[in-house]
Amino acid sequence: MKPIADVLKALNTTDKGISENEAKQRIEKYGPNQLSKQKGNTVFTQIRQAFLTPFNVVLAFLAIISYMLDYHLASAEDKDLTGTIIMIVMILASGIVTLIQSVKSNKAAEKLESMIKVTTNVIRGGSSSEIELERVVIGDIVALSAGDIIPADLRIIRARDLFVAQSTLSGESYPVEKRTISPKHDEMHSVTDLPSIALMGTNVVSGSATGVVIATGRDTQFGKISDTLAGRSPKKTSFDIGISKTSWLLIRFMAIMAPTVCVLNGMTKGDWIAALTFGLSTAVGLTPEMLPVIVSTNLVRGALKMSRQGTIVKDINSIQNFGAMDVLCTDKTGTLTQDKVILEYHYDVNGKENEKVLRHAYLNSYYQTGLKNLMDKAIITAAKKELNIVSSQFSKVDEIPFDFHRRRMSTVIQYLDGTIEMITKGAVEEMLAISSQLTVDNENIPLSNSWKEKIRQQVEDLNGDGFRVLGLAYKENPIPKNGDELAVDDESEMIFLGVLAFLDPPKTTASNAVANLKKSGVSIKILTGDNELVTKSVCNNIGFHINGKVVSGIDIDTKDDSVLSKLVEEHNVFVKLSPDQKEFIVKVLRKNNHVVGFLGDGINDAPAMKASDVGVSVDTAVDIAKESSGIILLKKDLSILYTGIRIGRETFGNIMKYIKATCSSNFGNVFSILVASAFLPFLPMQPLQLLFLNLVYDLSCLSIPLDTMDKDYLDTPKKWESQTIGRFMVWLGPTSSIFDITTYALLYWYICPSFIGHMYPELSEGSKLLFIQLFNAGWFVESLWTQTFVLHALRTEKVPFIQSMASGPMTMITMIAVAFGSIVPFTGFGKSLGLLPLPINFWFVLGATMFLYIALVTLIKTLYIKKFKTLL
Predict the structure, then answer these.
(1) What is the 3-state secondary structure (H, E, C) of 417-483?
(2) Could you give the CA distance from residue 412 to residue 397 in angstroms, rounded to a whole number?
(3) Is 155 helix (H, G, I), strand (E, B) or coil?
(4) How many angstroms separate the CA atoms of 160 and 120, rounded?
(5) ∠ CA 641-647-651, rounded to 5°
(6) Residue 186 has pLDDT above 80, yes or no
(7) Which of 727, 730, 704, 677 is nearest to 810 (CA)?
(8) If we measure between CA atoms, which residue out of 721, 703, 713, 730 comes closest to residue 791?
(9) Using CA atoms, how far apart are residues 306 and 318, in angstroms rounded to an integer?
C-alpha cells in the first residue's frame, strides 16, 4: 500500500483538494460520478415490457390462428381480416397505453428523485462545500462524519474512530473500523478488508475522517458489481407477485375453458371451423389484456398525487405496501414534536443558570466535526445570543466522535494560555459513570453518591416536564492512556459540570394525525433512544395513549423470542433503544404478520428502515436514511403520512376494482357460453361480434384509474391476497350467468319470434339468419350493459348510483361506451358485423334485466362482505 503522500501525488492533488476548474476538467474527462443505468431503463426494453405481456402474447397467438382460419385458409369469397385486425388493435391499444404510462412513470420518477438531493462535503482549494454526489471527481478530498454515504472509493488520509457499515458489499453484519494504515496485501482477502480504503455505497456509522477519491462511478467496486447486475430483474414485492399469480391464474382458466367451448360447439353444431373461431374469440374475451395498463396507470397517478401532497415515492411499486401498512414505528423527535429544539436551561449541579456550562457546551458542539444534531445547533444558537465568545481564544486539538453505544462525544480544546481541556457531553447516566468529581461554586469536589442522587432527581424533574437532558463534564490536560492519541478509554476521571435542558414542543397537528392514523387501522409504536420520562411527557401532551408499561432497551435484551413476540404486540412505547434494538422490534412485528412502516431521519434509524416493509424518511434526513427509504416526505409531519397512506389505498382499490370485476364477469360469461353452446342451435354471438364487444369494454375500463374510492374503504389497511380473486369469481361471477340465460330464453322464445314471425325451427334458411342476427344483437347489447354496469356495482360496498357514485370521468366514459354499443346494431357498421336493429320490446326487457341484475349483485355483494368483511 502506497504512502498517502505518494497517493496524493499520483492523483495530482493535495490535502487541500483540487481547484474548481480542475474539477470541471476531470468531470469532462472521466464523466459524472454515476453508476451505469439499468438496461430496464432503455427505450427498447420499455417497448418490450409494454408489448410482451402474458396477455398480449396470448392475443398475438390467437390473432395468428384467426388469420390462418379467416384469411389464409378461407375461400376467396370468405376471406375476412376483421377479427385479426380487432385483436391487433387490442394488442396495440394495450401496448401503447402501457408504454406511455411506462415513459410517464420513468419521467415522474426522475422528476421526483431530482427533488431528493444527496450531497457530500468536499474540500476544494482549501474550502469545504456541500456538492451533489454526481459532481465528485478523482482527487477530491472528502470530509466524512456519522450518517454520510461514502460517495466514491476513497483512500483514508485521516480518521478518528471511523466505523463503516459495508454489508452492501461484504455482507458483514457489524461496522468495521477504517484507519490510515493498512496491513500488507498478503494479509488481506479482498479489497473490502483494506482498513485504509472506504468504498462507494457504504456509510459512516460513527467517527469522522478525511479521504481522497481514487475511483468514481463505474470504476468503483460498487460500480463493477452494479455492472454485473445490470439487466437483472429487481426483487419482486408482494404486489408484483400477486399480479403475476393472478395473471397466470386467468391464463390457465382461459386455456381450459376456451377449448371446452370449442369442443362443445363443434359437437353440438357440427361446424368445427366456426366452433374453433368462436373458441378463439372466447379466449380473447377471457383475457384481461388491459390489466398491465390499469396497474401502471394507477401506480403512476398515485405517485403523482402523493407528490402533490408532499410525499415522494422512490419506487412506485412500494405504494401498495404503503396502503397495506398496519403498524407505523416512529421516533418521537420531529414527528410528534416540532423538531425545533431550544436550549431552555444550562444548569450547574445546584440547579442554577451557569455561563461556564453554556461556554463548555458551545466549545464541545461548535468544534466537533461529526454529525451535528438539533441539540448541537440549539447550543450554538443560545451561546451566540448569551455569550461574547471570541473564536481566536480557542483552537481545536482533537475529538472523539459520538457513537450510539457509549452515547457521548468529546472535543479537545486548547486555550490561549496553553491549557488543554477534554469537554464531553452525553446522556446523563453515562456522564456520571465516567466522572469522579463535580464543580460546586467554582470548586471541584469528589462526586459522592448523594450528589449523584441529587443530580438524578434534578434530571428526573426536568424530564417530567418534557425536557431532554444532557450531562456535561471536562478534564484538564488529559494524557492518553494508550498511544499518542486520546481515545474512548480516556473519557474517565472527569469533572461533572452541569446539565443542559432542551425543549422540543409537541406539534399542534400531532394529536389529530395520531387519531386519524388510528381510525385508519394503523397503530403507532414509538421507538426512541430517549428516556421514559421525556417520552411519557410528549405522549401525554399529544394525547397518545400508552399501552401498559413503557418498555426499555434492557427489557428487549433480557427477553426470549416468544416473550418478545407478545411484548411488541401489547406495548406501543419503547425507550432507550439502540439502532439494533429498533431493527429487531421491526423484524419481530413483521414476523407477527404485520406490514410495518418505519419513519426515521437519523443514522440510528437506517437499520430499522431497511428491515421494514416501507421505509419512510424526510428530505432533510441524513444520507443513509434517505437511501434506506422507499417513501420520502417533504415535510416531517404525520398528517402528510396519513394523506399518503390513503392515496396508496385508493391506488390499490382501483387496481382491485378492475381485477375482481373483470375476473368475475369473465367467469360468469364462460358459464353463459357453455349453456348456449349446449342448448342453442346456433352461436349466441359471432366471433367478430365477441371480439368487438371485448374491445369496447376494455377501452371503457381505461376510466377506472380516474375513479375514487369510498371513504370507508380508505379507513382500513389493504393487503394483497391472491386467494381472494378466486373466491370473488365464484361468488359474484354466476350472477351474470343467471341473467344471460334469462336473456337467451327471452330472445329465443319471445323477442325474436315476435319480430321475425315464427319460432326458429319453423323458419326458412333466410329467416333463420335474421333470427340469429337479432339474437346476436340482443346478447351483444345485454353483455355490454351487464359487464359495464357491474363495474359500478362492484366498485363500492354501498348501493351503486344511490349511496355511491363513480367519479365524473369514469361515469361519462362508461356511459359513452354503453351508448355506443347500444347504437351499433342500428348502424351500417353493425350490419357489417351481422347485427340487426333491436325492437322496442327488447329495451323493456333489458331495463328489467338490468334492474334485477344490479339488485342481485348488491344482495350477493352484501352477503359476501358480511362473510369476508371486505369486498375489494
Answers:
(1) CCCEEEEEEEEHHHHHHCEEEEEECCEEEECCHHHHHHHHHHHHHHHHCCEEEEEEEEEECCCCCCC
(2) 5
(3) strand
(4) 18
(5) 145
(6) no
(7) 704
(8) 703
(9) 12
- Cα 295 from chain centre: 15
pLDDT one-digit tens code per residue, 706-721: 999 998 898 888 887 7
- Inter-axis angle of helices 687-700 and 272-285, to 10 degrees? 10
The Cα–Cα gap between 291 and 658 comes to 8
Q: How buried is residue 603: exposed, middle or buried, by Cβ count under 10 Å (0-12/13-18/19+)?
A: buried
Which backbone phi and psi does 496 adopt, to 5 degrees?
-75, 125
The closest of 343, 333, 334, 424 to 381, measured between CA atoms, is 343
**Is 572:585 a contact under the CB 8 Å cutoff?**
no
Can you tell me the distance from the alpha carbon of 309 to that of 649, in angstroms, rounded to the nearest whole number? 15
Nearest-angstrom CA–CA distance, 14 and 141: 8
Three cell numbers, residue 512:
389529530
Dist. CA 655–CA 317, nearest whole Å: 12
Residue pLDDT, tens place only, 352-381: 999 999 999 999 999 887 656 778 889 999
Cβ atoms within 10 Å of 144's Cβ, excluding its own: 27
Q: Taking a C-beta distance cutoff of 8 angstroms, is the pair 800, 793 a contact? A: yes
Number of other residues whose CB lies within 10 A of the CB of residue 41: 12
Hey, CA dihedral for 364, 367, 372, 374, is it positive or negative? positive
C-alpha cell read off for 762:
319453423
* Contact criterion met (CB below 8 Å) for 771 and 747: no
Amino acid at residue number 557: D
The secondary structure of residue 225, as a DSSP letter, is: H
pTM, two decimals, is 0.72
As a three-state string, the secondary structure of 771-830 is HHHHHHHHHHHHHHHHHHHHHHHHCCCCCECCCECCCHHHHHHHHHHHHHHHHHHHCHHH
Assess whether pLDDT exceeds 50 at residue 336.
Answer: yes
- In DSSP terms, 177 is beta-bridged to 163
Kindly state the cell numbers that stand for 826: 342500428
C-alpha cell at 29: 474527462
User: Which one, of 626, 624, 628, lies nearest residue 612 by Cα?
Assistant: 628
Strands 311-313 and 203-215: unpaired
The amino acid occupying position 638 is L
Active site residues: 331
Distance, in Å, from the CA atom of 279 to the CA atom of 776, rounded to the nearest integer, reads 16
Residue 234 has pLDDT above 60, yes or no: no
Q: Which uninterrupted H or E stretch holds 340? A: none
Out of 410-419, 659-668, 759-768, 823-832, least confident range: 659-668
Helix pair angle (374-386, 355-367), 10° resolution: 130
Predicted pLDDT of residue 38:
46
Q: Can you read off the three cell numbers belonging to residue 231?
A: 439487466
d(CA 565, CA 572): 13
Q: Is 124 helix (H, G, I), strand (E, B) or coil?
A: strand
* CA distance between the termini of the chain: 62
SS3 of 344, please? Answer: strand
Closest among 45, 793, 54, 656 to 295, alpha carbons compared? 656
Strand partners, 438: 445, 496
* DSSP single-letter state for residue 559: S
The torsion defined by the Cα of 714, 719, 725 and 726, in degrees rounded to 10, comes to -130
The pLDDT of residue 675 is above 60? yes
Q: Report CA Rg, the chain.
A: 35
Q: How far is CA 804 from CA 659, 713, 791, 862, in A?
A: 20, 12, 12, 15
Residues 6+ apart with CB under 8 A from 380: 362, 365, 366
Asked if 96 contacts 46 with a C-beta cutoff of 8 angstroms, the reply is no
Q: Fill in the amino acid letter for 285.
A: G
